[in-house]
Structures are given as C-alpha cells and as structure tokens.
Amino acid sequence: MIPVISIVGFSNSGKTTLIVKILKEIKLRGYRVAIIKHHHGDFDIDEKGKDSWHHSQAGADTVIVSSPNKFAMVSNLEEEKELDDLIKLIGDVDLIITEGYKKLNKPKIAVFRTELCEHDSILELENLIAVASDTYIKHKVPCFDLEDIEGLVNLIEKKFLKNK
Questions:
Q1: pLDDT, tens only, 51-85
Q2: Cα–Cα–Cα angle for 95, 97, 100, nearest 5°?
Q3: Which of 61, 80, 88, 144 fits a 20 to 30 Å CA distance from 42?
Q4: What does the alpha-carbon distance between residue 91 and residue 131 come to, in Å, rounded to a whole number?
Q5: Which domains, ranges and CATH numbers included, belong to the chain?
Q6: Which domain of life is it from (predicted)?
Q7: Cα dihedral angle (80, 113, 109, 136), rounded to 10 degrees?
C-alpha cells in the first residue's frame, strides 16, 4: 500500500508552499510522488474553448485527455469522492501527499504560523507526526522550522519510504 501523508493547516498558512519544497527534496532523492489537493468548492481544469471543455459542455460525464507524456481525467460527480477512493486511482508512486483532509485518519504534518493561528487546535489533531512552524513549539511530535525541508523529508523518508 502506498503511504499517505496529509499536510494540514489553516487557510493561507503555507501548506502549498511547504508541499512544493518537500516535493522538490523528495524528488531529488529519487522517489515518485502523487499529490491530492482537497478543494472545498467547485473548480474547473478544462480551459474554455478547448476540445475537452466542449466535450464536457456537451454532456460527457468523464473526459480523458491523453498525450505521449501525460493524461488528465475530469469526471462529474454527484457527491465528493472519499480520499481512499482517490488513492485507489493512483499507482506507480512511492508516496502520496495530500493537501488538507485534516479530519481524516492519515498521518499529518501541521503547518503552524503564529500570525494566523489564534488557537492551537491544529496541533491537537489525531495522527500528527510533525509540526512545521515559524516558531518553536514544544509538542509530543517533532517541530521543524518551515525552512528545514531536509529535516522534514528525513522524517518522511525514515517513517514511510526507507522500507521501499
């Protein structure tokens, strides 16, 4: 089973920025990684006017665009897919990183910024394996500076990738 780690935090805390930095370091170490981003609202990845957009507008429930070096699939849903169902769609990677999904039962790294966190509820989440913060936080899990990407990736590698 592919290990899954969720990067969680309040809005605008730097989750995406941290994921990008972690992703670059993990890739340098030779691992293959998938990202699942949770979005609370509607979104569209079909560019208006493109063939795939026309297919969707004409009523296709699923549209797949494929080329020699990548593919994309857009499916209309009646209800949101569960994270575990999305994970089943992914293969051929060593690690899945999610952005969000703080309420689900997956290992989590919390992003904590003092100016955005009026309370520390993000630090009390279940399955927390680390905190990435702009200040030192005494906690039962390791606390890393937001710029200590090597330290974070060392932890991820030790806990989830070294047995690969």
A1: 878 888 888 888 878 888 887 788 888 888 889 99
A2: 160
A3: 88
A4: 28
A5: 4-43+80-161 (3.40.50.300)
A6: Bacteria
A7: -170
